[in-house]
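User: Good morning. I'm curious how flavin-adenine dinucleotide would be positioned relative to this chain. Could you predict the structure with it bound?
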Amino acid sequence: MELNGVMVYSEDVELELQLLGKGAELAAKLGSDLSALLMGSDVKDAKTLIEHGADKVYIADHPKLAQFAVEPYRTGILEAVKKASPEIILLGATKRGKELAPRVAAALDTGCMTECIALDVDDERRLLAERLTYGGSCIAKEMSRKRPHIATIPPRTFQKPEPSKRDGKVIKLYFEIPVSKIAIVERKEKSRGEGGLEEAPIIVAAGRGLRQKEDLQLLEELANVLGAKVGCTRPIAADSGWLDEWIGISGLKVRPRLYIACGISGTVQHAAGIRDAQIIVSINNDEAANIFELSDYGVVGDLYKAIPALTKALKSGLK
Ligand SMILES: Cc1cc2nc3c(=O)[nH]c(=O)nc-3n(C[C@H](O)[C@H](O)[C@H](O)COP(=O)(O)OP(=O)(O)OC[C@H]3O[C@@H](n4cnc5c(N)ncnc54)[C@H](O)[C@@H]3O)c2cc1C
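Assistant: Good morning! Here's the predicted structure, ligand included:
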Protein backbone atom coordinates (compact mmCIF):
# COMPACT_ATOMS: atom_id res chain seq x y z
CA MET A 1 0.00 0.00 0.00
CA GLU A 2 1.27 3.49 -0.89
CA LEU A 3 1.92 5.39 2.36
CA ASN A 4 1.68 9.14 2.20
CA GLY A 5 1.01 12.04 4.52
CA VAL A 6 1.38 12.85 8.19
CA MET A 7 -1.31 12.00 10.75
CA VAL A 8 -1.54 13.37 14.29
CA TYR A 9 -3.60 12.31 17.27
CA SER A 10 -3.93 13.10 20.94
CA GLU A 11 -6.99 12.94 23.16
CA ASP A 12 -5.70 16.26 24.55
CA VAL A 13 -6.78 18.72 21.83
CA GLU A 14 -4.30 21.40 22.94
CA LEU A 15 -1.47 18.88 22.45
CA GLU A 16 -2.95 17.76 19.13
CA LEU A 17 -2.76 21.38 17.95
CA GLN A 18 0.93 21.44 18.92
CA LEU A 19 1.43 18.20 16.95
CA LEU A 20 -0.22 19.89 13.95
CA GLY A 21 2.50 22.58 14.13
CA LYS A 22 5.32 20.05 13.77
CA GLY A 23 3.23 17.82 11.49
CA ALA A 24 2.74 20.69 9.02
CA GLU A 25 6.49 21.25 8.87
CA LEU A 26 7.15 17.55 8.15
CA ALA A 27 4.29 17.34 5.62
CA ALA A 28 5.67 20.38 3.76
CA LYS A 29 9.11 18.75 3.57
CA LEU A 30 7.57 15.53 2.26
CA GLY A 31 5.20 17.34 -0.11
CA SER A 32 2.25 15.53 1.43
CA ASP A 33 -0.89 16.40 3.34
CA LEU A 34 -1.62 16.57 7.04
CA SER A 35 -4.48 14.82 8.77
CA ALA A 36 -5.74 14.71 12.33
CA LEU A 37 -7.92 12.25 14.21
CA LEU A 38 -10.65 13.07 16.70
CA MET A 39 -12.15 10.39 18.92
CA GLY A 40 -14.82 10.50 21.56
CA SER A 41 -18.53 11.04 21.91
CA ASP A 42 -20.09 14.14 20.38
CA VAL A 43 -16.71 15.52 19.29
CA LYS A 44 -16.60 19.16 18.25
CA ASP A 45 -13.08 20.24 17.43
CA ALA A 46 -12.78 19.42 13.71
CA LYS A 47 -12.99 23.10 12.69
CA THR A 48 -10.29 24.07 15.20
CA LEU A 49 -7.99 21.34 13.89
CA ILE A 50 -8.51 22.51 10.30
CA GLU A 51 -7.85 26.13 11.30
CA HIS A 52 -4.59 24.98 12.86
CA GLY A 53 -3.37 23.19 9.74
CA ALA A 54 -5.18 19.86 9.26
CA ASP A 55 -6.12 19.19 5.62
CA LYS A 56 -8.33 16.28 6.68
CA VAL A 57 -9.92 15.40 9.98
CA TYR A 58 -10.97 11.79 10.62
CA ILE A 59 -13.70 11.49 13.20
CA ALA A 60 -14.51 8.46 15.32
CA ASP A 61 -17.60 9.62 17.20
CA HIS A 62 -19.60 7.14 19.26
CA PRO A 63 -21.13 7.03 22.77
CA LYS A 64 -18.94 3.99 23.45
CA LEU A 65 -15.90 6.21 22.95
CA ALA A 66 -17.03 8.72 25.58
CA GLN A 67 -14.58 7.31 28.13
CA PHE A 68 -11.05 6.31 27.21
CA ALA A 69 -10.39 2.58 26.97
CA VAL A 70 -7.31 1.28 25.27
CA GLU A 71 -8.75 -1.33 22.87
CA PRO A 72 -11.51 0.85 21.36
CA TYR A 73 -9.15 3.82 20.98
CA ARG A 74 -6.42 1.63 19.49
CA THR A 75 -8.98 0.32 16.99
CA GLY A 76 -10.02 3.90 16.18
CA ILE A 77 -6.45 4.90 15.37
CA LEU A 78 -5.97 1.79 13.22
CA GLU A 79 -9.18 2.55 11.30
CA ALA A 80 -7.97 6.10 10.60
CA VAL A 81 -4.59 4.73 9.52
CA LYS A 82 -6.34 2.29 7.17
CA LYS A 83 -8.21 5.19 5.54
CA ALA A 84 -5.38 7.75 5.46
CA SER A 85 -2.34 5.44 4.96
CA PRO A 86 0.02 7.99 6.54
CA GLU A 87 3.76 7.50 6.34
CA ILE A 88 4.25 9.34 9.66
CA ILE A 89 2.02 9.09 12.74
CA LEU A 90 2.59 11.54 15.61
CA LEU A 91 0.88 10.70 18.90
CA GLY A 92 0.74 12.79 22.06
CA ALA A 93 2.87 11.34 24.86
CA THR A 94 0.17 11.67 27.48
CA LYS A 95 -0.51 8.76 29.82
CA ARG A 96 -3.11 7.51 27.35
CA GLY A 97 -0.96 8.20 24.31
CA LYS A 98 1.82 6.17 25.90
CA GLU A 99 -0.58 3.25 26.26
CA LEU A 100 -1.79 3.55 22.68
CA ALA A 101 1.42 4.18 20.72
CA PRO A 102 3.20 0.84 21.27
CA ARG A 103 -0.03 -1.06 20.65
CA VAL A 104 -0.62 0.78 17.38
CA ALA A 105 3.03 0.21 16.39
CA ALA A 106 2.77 -3.51 17.16
CA ALA A 107 -0.45 -3.83 15.14
CA LEU A 108 1.22 -2.09 12.18
CA ASP A 109 4.41 -4.12 12.65
CA THR A 110 6.55 -1.02 12.86
CA GLY A 111 8.71 0.83 15.41
CA CYS A 112 7.90 3.63 17.80
CA MET A 113 10.20 6.44 18.97
CA THR A 114 8.88 7.67 22.29
CA GLU A 115 8.89 11.12 23.95
CA CYS A 116 10.67 12.86 21.10
CA ILE A 117 11.82 16.45 21.66
CA ALA A 118 12.84 17.15 18.05
CA LEU A 119 11.72 15.65 14.74
CA ASP A 120 12.84 15.89 11.14
CA VAL A 121 12.85 13.82 7.95
CA ASP A 122 15.86 12.87 5.83
CA ASP A 123 16.27 12.61 2.03
CA GLU A 124 14.95 9.05 2.12
CA ARG A 125 11.78 10.22 3.93
CA ARG A 126 12.85 8.51 7.16
CA LEU A 127 11.80 10.08 10.44
CA LEU A 128 14.66 11.42 12.59
CA ALA A 129 14.13 12.12 16.28
CA GLU A 130 15.93 13.45 19.32
CA ARG A 131 15.07 12.01 22.73
CA LEU A 132 16.33 12.66 26.22
CA THR A 133 18.27 9.78 27.69
CA TYR A 134 20.33 8.90 30.80
CA GLY A 135 17.90 10.72 33.06
CA GLY A 136 17.83 13.75 30.80
CA SER A 137 21.61 14.33 30.83
CA CYS A 138 22.11 13.29 27.17
CA ILE A 139 20.23 13.53 23.90
CA ALA A 140 19.90 10.40 21.76
CA LYS A 141 19.49 10.88 18.00
CA GLU A 142 17.39 8.15 16.46
CA MET A 143 16.12 7.20 13.03
CA SER A 144 13.01 5.20 12.25
CA ARG A 145 13.71 2.68 9.51
CA LYS A 146 10.27 1.20 9.02
CA ARG A 147 7.14 2.92 7.76
CA PRO A 148 4.73 4.08 8.90
CA HIS A 149 7.05 5.90 11.27
CA ILE A 150 5.51 6.43 14.70
CA ALA A 151 6.65 8.94 17.30
CA THR A 152 5.18 10.18 20.56
CA ILE A 153 5.64 13.80 21.63
CA PRO A 154 5.26 15.24 25.15
CA PRO A 155 3.05 18.29 25.77
CA ARG A 156 4.56 21.73 25.04
CA THR A 157 7.45 20.32 22.98
CA PHE A 158 6.29 22.09 19.82
CA GLN A 159 4.50 25.38 19.28
CA LYS A 160 0.83 25.42 18.42
CA PRO A 161 0.50 27.14 15.02
CA GLU A 162 -1.46 30.37 14.60
CA PRO A 163 -5.02 29.63 13.42
CA SER A 164 -6.18 30.84 10.02
CA LYS A 165 -9.33 30.57 7.93
CA ARG A 166 -8.86 27.48 5.77
CA ASP A 167 -10.86 24.63 4.30
CA GLY A 168 -10.44 20.99 5.15
CA LYS A 169 -12.21 17.70 4.69
CA VAL A 170 -14.05 15.94 7.51
CA ILE A 171 -14.25 12.16 7.16
CA LYS A 172 -16.34 10.04 9.53
CA LEU A 173 -15.09 6.63 10.53
CA TYR A 174 -17.49 3.76 11.09
CA PHE A 175 -16.15 0.61 12.70
CA GLU A 176 -17.08 -2.04 15.18
CA ILE A 177 -15.97 -0.86 18.60
CA PRO A 178 -14.41 -3.73 20.55
CA VAL A 179 -15.41 -4.32 24.14
CA SER A 180 -12.59 -3.28 26.43
CA LYS A 181 -10.97 -6.08 28.42
CA ILE A 182 -10.63 -3.66 31.33
CA ALA A 183 -13.62 -2.24 33.20
CA ILE A 184 -13.22 1.00 35.15
CA VAL A 185 -14.67 0.40 38.59
CA GLU A 186 -14.19 3.87 40.10
CA ARG A 187 -13.05 7.35 39.13
CA LYS A 188 -11.57 9.81 41.60
CA GLU A 189 -10.58 13.39 41.00
CA LYS A 190 -6.82 13.70 41.50
CA SER A 191 -6.04 16.17 44.26
CA ARG A 192 -3.76 18.77 42.79
CA GLY A 193 -1.57 21.25 44.59
CA GLU A 194 -1.37 24.88 43.71
CA GLY A 195 -1.27 23.77 40.09
CA GLY A 196 -0.32 25.66 36.98
CA LEU A 197 3.42 25.04 37.35
CA GLU A 198 3.77 23.76 33.81
CA GLU A 199 2.50 27.05 32.40
CA ALA A 200 4.02 29.37 35.02
CA PRO A 201 6.30 32.04 33.57
CA ILE A 202 8.22 32.36 36.86
CA ILE A 203 8.90 29.56 39.37
CA VAL A 204 10.57 29.74 42.76
CA ALA A 205 11.57 26.18 43.68
CA ALA A 206 12.43 24.61 47.00
CA GLY A 207 14.99 21.90 47.63
CA ARG A 208 16.27 20.03 50.64
CA GLY A 209 18.23 23.11 51.66
CA LEU A 210 14.99 24.04 53.42
CA ARG A 211 14.96 22.76 56.99
CA GLN A 212 11.21 22.61 57.66
CA LYS A 213 7.86 22.98 55.94
CA GLU A 214 7.17 26.39 57.54
CA ASP A 215 10.23 27.79 55.75
CA LEU A 216 8.37 27.49 52.46
CA GLN A 217 6.87 30.79 53.58
CA LEU A 218 10.15 32.47 52.54
CA LEU A 219 9.70 31.22 48.99
CA GLU A 220 6.02 32.13 48.96
CA GLU A 221 6.85 35.72 49.89
CA LEU A 222 9.39 35.93 47.08
CA ALA A 223 6.90 34.28 44.71
CA ASN A 224 4.23 36.84 45.68
CA VAL A 225 6.49 39.74 44.79
CA LEU A 226 7.38 38.17 41.44
CA GLY A 227 3.93 36.81 40.57
CA ALA A 228 5.52 33.35 40.55
CA LYS A 229 4.44 29.82 41.46
CA VAL A 230 6.23 27.70 44.06
CA GLY A 231 7.62 24.36 42.96
CA CYS A 232 10.06 21.88 44.47
CA THR A 233 12.33 18.87 44.05
CA ARG A 234 11.07 15.35 44.52
CA PRO A 235 12.18 14.82 48.14
CA ILE A 236 10.22 17.91 49.21
CA ALA A 237 7.00 16.52 47.70
CA ALA A 238 7.36 12.75 47.60
CA ASP A 239 9.33 12.20 50.84
CA SER A 240 8.39 15.15 53.07
CA GLY A 241 4.93 15.78 51.61
CA TRP A 242 5.31 19.57 51.93
CA LEU A 243 3.95 20.15 48.41
CA ASP A 244 1.93 17.90 46.08
CA GLU A 245 3.93 17.98 42.87
CA TRP A 246 7.60 18.07 42.04
CA ILE A 247 9.66 19.05 39.05
CA GLY A 248 11.95 16.67 37.21
CA ILE A 249 12.20 13.55 35.15
CA SER A 250 9.58 11.71 37.19
CA GLY A 251 7.53 14.85 37.80
CA LEU A 252 6.54 17.96 35.91
CA LYS A 253 8.53 19.40 33.03
CA VAL A 254 8.46 23.18 33.27
CA ARG A 255 9.53 25.92 30.89
CA PRO A 256 9.38 29.23 32.76
CA ARG A 257 11.11 32.41 31.68
CA LEU A 258 12.73 32.52 35.13
CA TYR A 259 13.47 29.62 37.50
CA ILE A 260 14.85 30.38 40.95
CA ALA A 261 16.31 27.25 42.57
CA CYS A 262 16.60 27.58 46.35
CA GLY A 263 18.66 24.97 48.20
CA ILE A 264 18.59 22.57 45.23
CA SER A 265 21.70 20.54 44.40
CA GLY A 266 20.91 20.10 40.68
CA THR A 267 20.80 16.33 40.16
CA VAL A 268 20.21 15.01 36.62
CA GLN A 269 16.71 13.93 37.64
CA HIS A 270 15.77 17.46 38.65
CA ALA A 271 17.65 19.08 35.76
CA ALA A 272 15.60 17.07 33.25
CA GLY A 273 12.51 18.99 34.33
CA ILE A 274 14.03 22.49 33.98
CA ARG A 275 16.09 22.15 30.82
CA ASP A 276 13.65 24.41 28.94
CA ALA A 277 13.75 27.20 31.53
CA GLN A 278 15.07 30.37 29.90
CA ILE A 279 16.95 31.82 32.87
CA ILE A 280 18.00 29.80 35.92
CA VAL A 281 19.05 31.58 39.11
CA SER A 282 20.36 29.44 41.97
CA ILE A 283 20.89 30.00 45.65
CA ASN A 284 23.04 27.37 47.30
CA ASN A 285 25.60 27.49 50.12
CA ASP A 286 27.85 24.92 48.43
CA GLU A 287 29.83 26.58 45.67
CA ALA A 288 30.52 23.15 44.15
CA ALA A 289 26.79 22.32 43.83
CA ASN A 290 25.92 21.02 40.37
CA ILE A 291 23.04 23.48 40.04
CA PHE A 292 25.56 26.25 39.37
CA GLU A 293 26.63 24.40 36.19
CA LEU A 294 23.07 24.74 34.92
CA SER A 295 22.54 28.31 36.09
CA ASP A 296 22.76 31.65 34.37
CA TYR A 297 23.20 33.41 37.73
CA GLY A 298 24.26 31.94 41.05
CA VAL A 299 24.26 33.13 44.63
CA VAL A 300 26.68 31.19 46.85
CA GLY A 301 25.16 31.67 50.25
CA ASP A 302 22.60 30.75 52.85
CA LEU A 303 19.10 30.76 51.41
CA TYR A 304 17.75 31.89 54.80
CA LYS A 305 19.64 35.17 54.28
CA ALA A 306 19.59 35.42 50.47
CA ILE A 307 15.84 34.92 49.88
CA PRO A 308 14.59 37.57 52.36
CA ALA A 309 17.25 39.98 51.02
CA LEU A 310 16.09 39.34 47.45
CA THR A 311 12.42 39.74 48.40
CA LYS A 312 13.19 43.00 50.21
CA ALA A 313 15.25 44.36 47.32
CA LEU A 314 12.53 43.48 44.80
CA LYS A 315 9.85 45.04 46.98
CA SER A 316 11.75 48.29 47.35
CA GLY A 317 12.68 48.24 43.66
CA LEU A 318 9.03 47.93 42.71
CA LYS A 319 7.94 50.91 44.77
C1 LIG B 1 14.17 7.20 39.63
C2 LIG B 1 14.37 8.54 40.28
C3 LIG B 1 13.64 9.60 39.79
C4 LIG B 1 13.79 10.86 40.39
N1 LIG B 1 13.08 11.90 39.90
C5 LIG B 1 13.27 13.11 40.42
C6 LIG B 1 12.57 14.24 39.90
O1 LIG B 1 11.76 14.13 38.98
N2 LIG B 1 12.80 15.43 40.45
C7 LIG B 1 13.69 15.63 41.49
O2 LIG B 1 13.84 16.77 41.93
N3 LIG B 1 14.35 14.58 41.98
C8 LIG B 1 14.17 13.34 41.49
N4 LIG B 1 14.83 12.30 42.02
C9 LIG B 1 15.64 12.53 43.23
C10 LIG B 1 17.03 13.07 42.90
O3 LIG B 1 17.91 12.00 42.67
C11 LIG B 1 17.58 13.90 44.09
O4 LIG B 1 17.51 13.12 45.27
C12 LIG B 1 16.82 15.20 44.30
O5 LIG B 1 16.68 15.89 43.10
C13 LIG B 1 17.61 16.06 45.29
O6 LIG B 1 16.80 17.12 45.69
P1 LIG B 1 17.39 18.41 46.34
O7 LIG B 1 18.26 19.10 45.38
O8 LIG B 1 16.24 19.14 46.94
O9 LIG B 1 18.21 17.86 47.59
P2 LIG B 1 19.76 17.68 47.83
O10 LIG B 1 20.40 16.96 46.72
O11 LIG B 1 19.90 17.15 49.20
O12 LIG B 1 20.32 19.18 47.79
C14 LIG B 1 20.10 20.14 48.76
C15 LIG B 1 20.98 21.33 48.43
O13 LIG B 1 20.68 22.37 49.32
C16 LIG B 1 21.90 23.04 49.63
N5 LIG B 1 21.68 23.70 50.90
C17 LIG B 1 21.58 23.16 52.13
N6 LIG B 1 21.35 24.12 53.07
C18 LIG B 1 21.32 25.30 52.41
C19 LIG B 1 21.13 26.64 52.82
N7 LIG B 1 20.88 26.98 54.09
N8 LIG B 1 21.17 27.61 51.87
C20 LIG B 1 21.41 27.31 50.55
N9 LIG B 1 21.59 26.04 50.11
C21 LIG B 1 21.53 25.05 51.03
C22 LIG B 1 22.95 21.96 49.66
O14 LIG B 1 24.23 22.49 49.41
C23 LIG B 1 22.47 21.04 48.55
O15 LIG B 1 23.11 21.37 47.31
C24 LIG B 1 14.70 11.04 41.46
C25 LIG B 1 15.45 9.95 41.92
C26 LIG B 1 15.27 8.72 41.33
C27 LIG B 1 16.07 7.57 41.85
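The chain has a mean pLDDT of 94. The two ends are 68 Å apart (CA to CA).
Let me know if you'd like a different ligand tried.
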